[in-house]
Amino acid sequence: MQPTCLPNTNNSKPNPTSKLKKNPMGANPFTFLALLHLLLFHSVIAVIPAAAAANIGTAEPFIGVNIGTDLTDLLPPADLATFLKAQQIKHVRLYDADPGILSALAGAGVSVAVGVPNNQLLALGSSPATADAWVARHVLPFHPATPISAVAVGDEVPAALPSALPLLLPALRSLSAALAAANLSSIPVSTPLPFSVVLDPFPPSQAYFNQTLANSFFLPLLRFLADTASPLMLNLYPYYAFVQSRGAVPLDNALFKPLSPSLEEIDPNTLLHYTNVLDAMVDAAYVSMRNLNFTGVPVLITETGWPHNGSRRDEPYATANYASTYTSNLIRHMLDRRGTPLRPEATPSVYIYELFDEDLRPGPLSEAHWGLFYGNGTPAYLLNVAGAGGFLANDTTNRTYCVAAEEADRRSLQAALDWACGPGRANCSEIQPGESCYQPNDVRSHASYAFDSYYQMQGKAAGSCFFQGVAMITTTDPSHGKCIFPGSKQRNATGAGTNKAESSKAVVSPRSRLGKGRLYEHIVPMILNSILLVVCVSI
Questions:
Q1: Which of 250, 330, 433, 475 is most buried by a 10 A CB count?
Q2: DSSP states of 53-109 as a string?
Q3: Which of 60, 264, 265, 303 is catalytic?
């Protein structure tokens, strides 16, 4: 139902929660609506000792990554472990308890949140014995050599598989009891929920959980989480909040871009200032829990990210530039460890969605392009996160490459290519027929590889990326597919780009994240109604 504009008379006082208080310095009343979505990345990268898994609900906040397996050429488990070490990634989330990956991570200093797919809820929710068997099979053989930091039961069950919702709480309780029986009660058990379970999230102070599920699901869930010191797991996507808001959510707010004080928004009920969508979304979850009299349950962001590629017509904001901006700013924001306006003392931990592109995922083009890296380990885009303690080594800091200049003509490029591969003694073996960088077979691509080979061989010395003016320095890794350029850190870190005699075959998992964007459709009418209410009050 659309709000009706009423005269603002003495007898018609607007509800203070129905509109957003403008910043007295002149904020646009629509800007606050950018606040809502996503708390994503964490601050300190804590190394969990191999002897024990840290309790996610109470440990220092961290930044982790999700690892999906719906891709054609997933790195073999041993190479994946090497890759995680090279990237200094200490926390990962798996959508199932893959035994190969768990075994390979033994002693690697990487803690793992293991998942239970939705299609296993029936068995686990119906039989405690099945839960005992699941722990015996998926936890005990690996922990503590591979620290199991949490068990994530199901994935967005209220939206993805609502018929299984009555089984979710019994499954949580059974798995928690099974872990306790194995003297592993320190491992928290929870379930990742979609943000669509939070209603009226603008402003955060008026948010609440879906009332139809309050008594039957949320109250017992929160009681269980509080009793077991487990976090409320949420999948938060500011990208969808932005693209589905019809312009009501400003792009800069979704991307964590710095805002001038005049563009900050104030929650009219708490007078708290918000500068980004992420903080507002997390606070909306805190308020929703508080409305049910729970204030001690922490929030854990189990998914958040930004796609780096999509349909130019239908998904114009799914670009590498926006993905880099979002992820880099998110990391910086979490490294500040300032919490949220409502809970400045509590910085949530977060898992970035996701480590690798999953090219086998169906749906719109963007579904296959959420990864920080391609399947072979080359960066999908580069980050700018100096000071992150080495986390995600695809940082652009001090990383440069030499490639063909955009305006260079073919004849000049060919001459420079001949010199680099001849007198310059660059290693041009990879651009020979049949090798990994032969395609695309054109002068510009081959020249870029040869130029970078020479440039790196010369230690990036001044003047080594000139080639009579046809070369230029860039911070963007020019590696593509299986072609790994000499300057790429992935070349030596994982052997990426080489042919593997043995590779793991991707099996499309039963998890259902396709259509996760639809889970944010409930936000749009709330945003529009809020806008109309603001306009009506101002008339």
A1: 330
A2: PPPTTTSPP-EEEEE---STEEPPHHHHHHHHHHTT--EEEESS--HHHHHHTTTTT
A3: 303
How far is C-alpha 152 from the geometric centre of its chain's CA atoms? 16
- Of 156, 264, 358, 430, which is the active-site residue? 156
Q: Give the CA distances from residue 536 to residues 333, 513, 532, in Å, rounded to whole numbers and listed in that order.
A: 35, 38, 6
430 flagged as catalytic: no
Residue in the structure block whose two tokens are 């001459």: 415
Decide if 156 is catalytic: yes
Contact (CB, 8 A) for 367 and 383: no
pLDDT tens for 45-68 read 333 333 334 456 556 889 999 999
Residues 190 and 225 sit within 8 Å (Cβ to Cβ): yes
Name the token pair of 195: 């943000």
Token pair of 483 as six digits: 């072609």
At 376-405, the pLDDT tens digits run 888 888 787 765 655 776 555 567 889 998
CA contacts within 13 A on the Cβ side of 123: 11
pLDDT at residue 389, rounded to an integer: 58
Could you give the angle at the alpha carbon of 478 between the alpha carbons of 476 and 483, nearest 5°?
150
Q: Please give the single-letter amino acid code of residue 291.
A: N
Please enumerate in sequence order all residues whose Cβ is within 8 A of that of 53, keeping only pairs 6 or more positions apart, or say none: 111, 143, 144, 147, 148, 149, 150, 186, 187
Element housing 33 (H / E)? none
Hey, is 189 helix, strand or coil?
strand
Q: How far is the C-alpha of 188 from the C-alpha of 225, rounded, in Å?
A: 8
